[in-house]
Amino acid sequence: MRPRGAVGRRDGAGAGSALPRWVLLPAGAGLALFVLPLLGILSRVPWTRFGALLTSESALTALLLSLRTASVSTVLCVLLGVPMALVLARGHVPGTRVLRSVVLLPLVLPPVVGGLALLWALGRNGLLGPALSVLGIEVGFSTAAVVLAQTFVSLPFLVLSLEGALLSAGDRFEAVAATLGARPGRVLLRVTVPLVAPGLVSGAVLAFARSLGEFGATLTFAGSLQGVTRTLPLEVYLQRETDPDAAAAMSLLLVVVAVVVVVAVRGRRSAP
Amino acid sequence: MSLHVDVRLTARDLDVALDVATGEVVAVLGPNGAGKSTLLAVLAGLLRPSAGKVVLDGTVLAEGSGTFVPPHRRGVGLLAQEALLFPHLDVTANVAFGPRSAGASRARARTRALEVLAEVGVADLAARRPRELSGGQAQRVAIARALAADPRLLLLDEPLAALDVTAAPEVRQVLRRVLARGDRSALLVTHDPLDALALADRAVVVEGGRVTESGPVQQVLTAPRSRFGARLAGLDLLPGVLTAEGLRTRDGGLVAGLAGDPPAAPGGRGVAVFSPAAVAVHPRDPGGSPRNRWAATVVDVSPRGEVVRVRTRLEALPEHDVQADVTLAAAAELDLAPGAAVHLVVKATAVRLHPTV
């Protein structure tokens, strides 16, 4: 049986009452706020030297570091975020509301503050610093710190996206799977995860994009060492005065990546 | 005894005891929100009862706050109103899901799936995706999927309710064939008396989280002892206490009637059941014998083919509606409309008195 509600919703989509025209004015102003800066970047990009600027050693190093760290932090987000979303959506544990607020925190916290918080928790003089030092682990100002900072800010995107998918999928398929004799582990892998795969993919893509663009937490927790912690956004920030052309070219690259991500996620969401 | 249930679930105000013999199919009837689906969820292991016991084929599935066998180890199949086929698996993989979960090899699970699909008459759908199936086809595949897991008990939660008029008979036939084999117990939640008659050996009526009636389907539908049973059967029903003279209702009035089957023992709780066709409607108190005469107010008037059904509320027992069927001519003559005051009379010979649980 097809879910009747979904069809009804789609049928009714065009049947809403007309909008008052004045709504278009602030809506247009809002759109301009997004579009104008993009035009600003395009106006600054030195198109003739575009390729050369992007393939300069420092730009390439930063780009590769960004791709590497963002990939690792996306994997970390999936490994940590999927269980978190499952607990939030299906765990029936007390305090879910509080837990959800905690997960939301990095989303609304200024990344710089997040970076400082990480430093004070995991840095050499932080809460766990001495303990980590004993184990021979120095997190602060290393590539690992970049990955941690990125994971810190990106995790909520994956958790919230996946939790939404889990809640809207409901647990009825899982109940049926259990009555068919499937153990909880099998239900999770064979039913739950495939059902929410679109939500998981879009969550991972969002997390990757957020990691790629991370700046504040990275700078405060990991610093800006070329080849070690200086990711593309840090490179852009560094170059903005010494070589504005290079900054513009790298900015455009980040914009293109962002657009690709948005299209990918939206395409996923609107697919049946 | 195959299934023995005696459970309480305080949060949902459920307190149900029932037994199902091996191979027996029991219809669970009742109004919306009576606790029928909650009962099935308790049996499937999706809800934990707060007290009581569920025993299936000698295995304790749940007992008080102690033993609780999780759903995947119960051997209890569940078929819901919607087929709920896994959308990411094709039909064969959906049906093979149960055998695979039980540890069968890929090949054996597949063989078993194709076997059951053929049994249910949908072998031709084996390679389809769930979204390519009609409602009736999907439900038949869902039946096959439930059977392939080889459940000891099958729970059917309004399996035909979401199907259109052409698909329902086909699926009903499949269920009839599957359930008639007599080797598997089943509980069938339904609101359709036809389903109960076609598929079940026995019916229980659940109202307000309690079993209010239990007996052969035929008896529940023709000689109901519960309000819901009476509604299904289209009969009027008044509850009370049985005495030597008749049924004493809550207001102290007496309903005279013929002893039902089995004959009612005086002193116990019972019901008076009569057909709306046996209720005469008068504009004024007709006098005569004081028995089975009630002042009432018309609540609703609706045409039903040759007759007009008049729903009334008794002045003495406002919590019970009594329906009367009158001819169109009589309805016009009496000027029946909601709010009209009338007097109802039922001959004692048209009333059956049954004891209740």
From TrEMBL, chain A:
Domain ABC transmembrane type-1 residue range list: 63-265
Provide the transmembrane region boundaries: 21-42, 62-89, 101-123, 143-166, 187-209, 246-265
PROSITE patterns linked to this entry: ABC_TM1
Could you tell me the membrane topology recorded for this protein? Multi-pass membrane protein
Per its UniProt record, what Pfam families does this chain match?
BPD_transp_1
The protein's location, in the record's own words, is:
Cell membrane
Q: Which UniProt keywords are given for this protein, alphabetically ordered?
A: Cell membrane, Membrane, Molybdenum, Transmembrane, Transmembrane helix, Transport
Q: Name the predominant localization.
A: membrane
Q: Which positions make up the signal peptide? A: none
Give the family per the record. Answer: Belongs to the binding-protein-dependent transport system permease family. CysTW subfamily.
Q: What does this protein do?
A: Part of the binding-protein-dependent transport system for molybdenum; probably responsible for the translocation of the substrate across the membrane.
Entry protein name: Molybdenum transport system permease
Instruction: Record the organism.
Output: Kineococcus halophytocola
The top of its lineage is:
Bacteria, Bacillati, Actinomycetota, Actinomycetes, Kineosporiales
UniProtKB/TrEMBL annotation, chain B:
User: Could you tell me which residue ranges the ABC transporter domain spans?
Assistant: 3-233
User: Could you identify this protein by its name?
Assistant: Sulfate/molybdate ABC transporter ATP-binding protein
Source taxon at top rank: Bacteria
Lineage, highest ranks first: Bacteria, Bacillati, Actinomycetota, Actinomycetes, Kineosporiales
Q: Which of UniProt's keywords are assigned here? A: ATP-binding, Cell membrane, Membrane, Molybdenum, Nucleotide-binding, Translocase, Transport
- Location of the Mop domain: 287-355
Entries under InterPro entries matching the protein = AAA+_ATPase (IPR003593), ABC_transporter-like_ATP-bd (IPR003439), ABC_transporter-like_CS (IPR017871), Mo/tungstate-bd_C_term_dom (IPR008995), Molybdenum_import_ModC (IPR050334), Mop_domain (IPR004606), P-loop_NTPase (IPR027417), Transp-assoc_OB_typ1 (IPR005116)
Q: Which Pfam families match?
A: ABC_tran, TOBE
Q: Name one GO molecular function term.
A: ATP binding
- Report the source organism: Kineococcus halophytocola
